[in-house]
Design brief:
The structure holds two protein chains of two kinds. Chain A is of the alpha+beta class. Chain A folds into nine domains: 1-35, no CATH class; 38-136 and 902-908, Immunoglobulin-like, CATH 2.60.40; 151-245, Macroglobulin (MG2) domain (Immunoglobulin-like, Sandwich); 253-363, Immunoglobulin-like (Sandwich), CATH 2.60.40.10; 373-445 and 675-690, Immunoglobulin-like; 455-547, no CATH class; 554-670, no CATH class; 708-792 and 854-899, Sandwich (Immunoglobulin-like); and more. In chain A, helix 4 (472-486) packs across helix 5. Chain A is extended. Chain B is an alpha+beta fold. Among the domains of chain B are: 9-107, no CATH class; 204-296, Immunoglobulins (Immunoglobulin-like, Sandwich); 339-514 and 526-565, Glycosyltransferase, CATH 1.50.10.20; 688-806, Alpha-macroglobulin, receptor-binding domain (Immunoglobulin-like), CATH 2.60.40. In chain B, the strands form eight sheets. In chain B, strands 1, 7, 9, 11, 13 and 14 form a six-stranded mixed sheet that branches. In chain B, strands 6, 8, 10, 12, 32 and 35 form a six-stranded antiparallel sheet that branches. Chain B has a five-stranded antiparallel sheet with strand order 29-30-27-33-34, with helices on one face. Classes of the chains: A alpha+beta, B alpha+beta. Chains A and B meet through strand 12, strand 14, strand 15, strand 51 and strand 52 of A and strand 2, strand 3, strand 4, strand 5 and strand 8 of B.
Amino acid sequence: MKKWLVLGVLLLVGVIILATKVCLPAVFRYGLWVDRCPDGELRQTVVANGTFQRGGASPLYVSAYAHYTTGDSDSQTQVPMNEFSPEVQLVGLGVDQKLQPKRPFEKTGDSMWGELEIPRVNDGDYVLRVKVHSNLGESSVDLPLPLYAPARVHLITDRPLYEPGNTVRFRALALKAIDLSPLDGRPGTFRVFDPNGEVLLEEKASAGEWGVVEGNFPLDSEAQSGDWRVTWSSGSASESRSFTVKPFTLPRFRIEASAKKPFYRRRERPVLKGEVRYASGAPVAKAKVELNWQVGGDWPPPTSWVDGSALPKLATTDASGSFTVELPAVPEDLQKQATLTAMLAAVDDSGDRVEGAASILLSEDAIKVEAVPELEGGLVEGFNNRLYLRATTADGRVLDGASLHVKRLWEPSDKGVTEPSDEDGVAALQLDPGPPVNVVIPAQPFRPPPRAKPVTRTGLEDLISDEGEPTLGDRLAFDRLEARVAECTRYVGNDSQVTLGVRIATSGKVAGIAAPSTKLGACVSKVVQSVATPAGKDRLLTASYTFDDSDLPALSAQPEGVPDVPESLMAALNEALIDVRDCLPPTVSSGTLPRMIAWSYAPGAKEVGVSWIAATDAMRGFPEAPMRCIEQRLGKISLPKRAGADDLEGPDSAAIGYARLTVEAPEKYESVRPQATTLVGYEFLVTAKLGNEVLGTTKLLMTPGTIPNLRVRATPQIVNPGEPIQVDVLRGPDFQGDLPTAAWLSRAGFDRIEAKLDEKTRRAQFVAPADAEGWASIEVSGAHTFIFVRPKAQLAVKVTPDKERYAPGQTAVLELATTIGSKGGPAAVGLFGVDNSLAQLVALPGPGELNGLRPSVSASTAFPGLDAQALTMGRVRGKNAAAATLLKVSSLPPAAELEAPVTASAQTWFDPLEGLTDHFYAVLNELHRQTREWETTAPETEKMTPQKMAALWAKAVETTAAGPDKTAGRDAWGRPLRLHRLPADLLALTEPRQVVVVGTRLPEDTENWNTFVRREKP
Amino acid sequence: MKTTTVLALVGTALAIGLLVFAGAGRSLAKGGYAPSSTESSAYYDRGMKMEEPMAAAPAPQPIMDSALAGPSGGLGLIGSGKGGGGYGTGIGSLREKSDEGKMGKRMVMKKEAMKKPAPADGKDQEEAEAFGGEGGMGAAPAATRAWFPETFLFRPLVVTGADGLAKVEVKVPDRLTTWHVLALAHSREGAQAGTTADFLGTLPAYVDPVVPPFLIAGDEVRLPVQIVNTTNVALSSKLELTAIGGTLSSPGSAVKVPAEGNDVQYVTLKVPRPGITALKATLGTTDAVEREIAVKPAGKLVTLTTGGTLAAPRSLELEGPNAPLEGSEKVRLLVFPGALSLVKSELSASPGRGGVAEDAYTLLLSGRAAGLLTSLGATPDMPTIRDIGVLAGQRAIRHARSPDVPTAALLAESALAHGDNPVMARLGERLAAQVARAQRPDGTCQGQTGWSLQRLLVTTAECVRAVRASQGSSAAKARANGVTIKAGAAFQRNLARVEDGYTAAAILASGAADGALADALKKKVLAALEPRPDGSKVLRVESGVVRADGVAPSSMEATATAVLALGATATESADLGTALLGGYSPYYGWGDGRANLLALRAVVELFKSPVPANVRIVLERDGREVVAGALDASKLQEVLSLEALAEGSAGMHTWALKSEPAVPGLGFSLTLQAHVPWSDEAPSPGLELRVAVPEGLEVGKAAEVKLTVAAPANLATVVKLALPAGVQADRPPLDALVSQGRITRFETEDGALKLYLPGQGPGATFEAVVRVIPTLAGTLHADATTLMPDGKPQLARAFKPAVWKVK
């Protein structure tokens, strides 16, 4: 008994001690271990998250929290609930299904964990409703669950260009990413963005049958011009399309032109033929056609082509609307290829104008070859290289059925190899090029840059006039002098600027002139002396000129004489040489002139005797005309006068000798003169023949390449499902170690298939899977190659109008035919019809619009027009072309997922302020009402004290709680609204000064409201 | 006169039907640029040909413009199959500008009439067959070509049958061109394909007037008319030219076009007035084509509007705008029977108005239209209302990029009226939150030092209304409660200082006053009501009283506020409503957007019953009848629109207006309008522009326009150089300016060239020469050229346009 008593006392003491540390009621009632007991009711929130997938294992984590307060109405404490049980429902789109976890929920930390299986419901936005049952009751949280199959979307507008006020129509197509089959009923949203990126339309639009959905957007008549965008998005799939908005006018007619021949070679005269036609198809007769030319390519065109002086600029259409222009012959120095582009503008009788363009191809050779080596980088010496070679005409047309002969250019005795080309013009050659050589890359022809303007008048002022402005007549007169002033350029020495003072008399003639005492100044002065200005006032003009002699070659003399060369002769010669600079053409090369001066001097003579004799080591081919000009100008060489004396500076004794004349070409031309370069590699001569007919020859440059340790070759590389594929493993010379034993065939989204590698033949065999379609790779120990499995049934569509032409208002019947494989089969067709004249303003979408939907491999282009995309679309026909194309594939497209996992999380919130605020304002409203009543009815002497306001508050709480909403007088914890529990901002609204309208009802001595409330806890 | 009027009404009715079918492509710009009398009669002609073979009823002066019967365009909105058109850009702006706009004008032509006579030779026979035996050169009158869309076919889904075949029929438009069809196909098996096909829409011989996309009133332009003959026989025919909305130098002449040849005839077109000019060219029985040219107004629009009710004959002294441009004086009378007509009228007209408040109003209207129309017994045309909402939404979003609080308050309620539109709902919530944040601790909203208390209280009321519009979440509701109570306390504190009826009404209408406060405010409102001679009442606006934006409220706005404050059942509200009806104008509604926001709500509350049938309306100027019309029984839900040219209205005149019988609830709006020459806007400091248009301009010859721009240093600017009709900017020199870095980019469009200029150095001016090529001869006007800081259109300055003379 005593023992029990002691035990009971101890237990009581323990409970008392525990009670000071833990709120026992909370433990017993809710299972919560909290140190202070909650004031008011407890609230529960739920957190749930997980990763979900239709038909797959989907983990879900659920937590529950208890919220309580021990003080103010807006304060709270949160603790996790230890015990609760979750329940899950999938809700939405007509579905309301309870989901059972595969195993009962398990506790993990503060959460419960369970694994669900999401049923295979239709695409759409669902909700995973998670309910929690605990001692605090039931709470639930909704996880948004967008369940969408991975999709690919195509979006198109009815046209790419609109005017403000038009309506934009758009059509989206939703396809399953995994197999591109239509996603009927797929939910989605259209959005339209203006040029600023602002969303102007957001409209839900679900795909209908065949995955097609349409929408429209009427543009405001003041819609901003610029690039707009429309998107259709559904789940994580989205597609965007741009369109332009701006006022425009459709052209009434169009101009089209093309070269008469596909390309032109050296010495041939290109002919451009074109026509101008109204949109109706009728010819535009007598249209004026303007042509502006541009030349593209590495080859530098002649200067006269660049400035357009040699190319036709105008043409006129004949009665049939056609025009023809003939160009000058293609220069002899054309290298490789260049493109002449004509920007065309046609003006019809009515003055209306349209623009177009045409191009003419110039080609050194009649054929063009491109090569794809099997080995990385190029060809390898001492190795059996496989090279895919494609020969086309210069303009890129396939040489179907031609054979290609390839021989080394540096080895005259090489017989070369010959191989036939396939349907795509590609031949496969095996060759050993031997060691690489230095191949000379010839220099491009030299085209001198445009000539500099020799003189610029930098100023003309009238010092006498008030504004300093010369009259228009004076300006014009000086303008007319400039060509003659330019002739003085040859006198430019150290100083390239000249300023003159010119006094003009009332008659308009020059009355006086002041110029620098240089030869340049004298020359300019002499020209200006002749200026003929209009009669008028007396004028004193200053004219400034800046000269640029960079286009003039320099000429220097290297005299030799017996007994010696007198200094005065040297000076006289140099002075004389300045005068002949303009005899030399600007493009002259540096070197010694073909004839030199033989000079002689006798004492007392005023001039040096000059004759001309042939020079040794002179430039060859120097033109005769400039030489004669020089000889004429240097016919007499006068000796300069001695300084400060009347006599000449001649030597005292006779002398005889010669002087070589050396030309120094202008630096600006010398520096840009191209030079031949070299390349280490191989240069082959390729000849294309059709039977015995030589279609053309051209050169092929190749660089040295490297051999990988291991290569894989598949045969064939384009296969049908079920066909065998032979795999050969090829070792490089540096390969060491054991051969691999297996080859692997991989397809995106499927398991790999293994095939044993025969040790002796190093060969393996696969069979293309019956369900395969598209790209696959074959890999052997890191080396890989690619194959393409032809689709079983390719789709084709054809639209045929019942007539070629219609009168306006007639009904055109468009016959649609869709074929799947070789037979007609059902398909969905979208039809978009526009005025073709729009194509003159903006590029219209083409038949390849949907090509981008099919996942594509990473690849570069093998030959122009032959790439992985072309292979996918069935446009590569030749075996060699396909092999070369596959060589350029680098990786498979990423596998499309059948079902994408969705990560979702959600939680419920409990904000004590929310409930508090709602109820507070209801009570505050009542407080105001009661205060108004008190203001009206209370004795005039009665003032609104804090005590009175607190009493009114209590009454207001009571009145509000008596209303229809019984909780209206309580805070979020279910406690009556007490002033001392209110947060500061709400309490401030109850301050007597805020509530009382009539200020005289307030006491003059004001007690602080907050202090009062804190103290009194009303 | 009665017969004439009846005929005019019949014509109007038919034209309305025509325009509805046509999508009211002939939408009028703000202010409604009406065609002349001859224009109208021609429209009637077309309408009757289309509807039924009845005699043409050319409407004599006074005219009733079919297009201007537009307010009845509201009919299009309720799916009654009538109406169309619309004032301002109205419904017309909702229609495809060219795609559908003119479809309805195609005259129906019987096949027999289209049949070509026996071909002269085999080739003609082939051509005839190629054209299906129609549309060739025949003896029957040629159908008028007038439907010129850019897109003629949009069929998102055509499913081929099991055999892979399908047929699609499509009407070939009237433009003679190559029509391009793109077909994109996909199969259930996951394959895709595409193809294109072209066909020609053409005629063996045709006439093609070369028209510019627009003209400016006052332009005199020499238009080429091309006649093309692709047959192998010479064509001798008569070219007849007519113009509606303009005058031609020649009615046409005989033409001879050689086989496989063409010919160009020139005709000078003068367009004195803004609106739509239709040039029709008829080549004998071979072809006829009608091309429309939008004629933009020259000068500034000046309007004078008055209104009232027709409870008794009205006599008004009105001073018309002085110095009007020739042909621009018009008078327009609108009579409004009941609220339904106003709702429909406003749906039609409001999208054509501009301005923040106006756009807010349109947005609100489109958000509530469905409910309003349904409640008034009409069936709303949801697609059209949706389109109005989309258009108004575009503008509202532009205004709401970084709005000040008054703008936010204006737009919030409107945006929230589109609760099912996520873009608008987000916008409305954002704006409501912004407005709520602007409430101060004392319960008032916004306010600045120096504001009058009256303005502060009105602004607070507006804030409350905006915040209370957002009730989409519990947080929003709490926010609305808080704002309302705090504001209520503020109103209570300042009750004694509320001295005018307008402020009292605004507070009452906000919903923040109840109980004794509301009673006190009601008394103040009632005390401020003023009776008018016609028996109606308005709320007096005291001097110095302003609304939230600092502008004095109009009498109509104050009156509408009073109706909303007192409630529709109040005794005085009927009289107030009468004034509201009379104060309505289809151009401006009841004033600006703020006024409209309130007034339409008030009217809808008050007038739900139709007025009596067969009411005759007569308008006289200085004792002479100008125009007359009748509200017939079938149109009691329509606004009656009467319009007449009113030359000589400048200065003071006496206008008389009466209805027989007098109807107290019948409102009218009378507007005098004219365009007057305009000058440069008041200088905007810091932006200067000189445009030197060269002389001696010739068709086809490039000319250089010199631009000189001065702006503050480092300020990027945009010059929008207005170009007259037919003048094209030459691109290469502009490309050169871009490559030189002198301009950052440029944009060309019909009638304008935009140059984007980088900031210049201190004191530096931008000078550039723009090369342009005129393609049409004549005396041509341009719009005003504008200069603005990049991205700040509100600071744009317009410069007086020049006249271009092109030989």
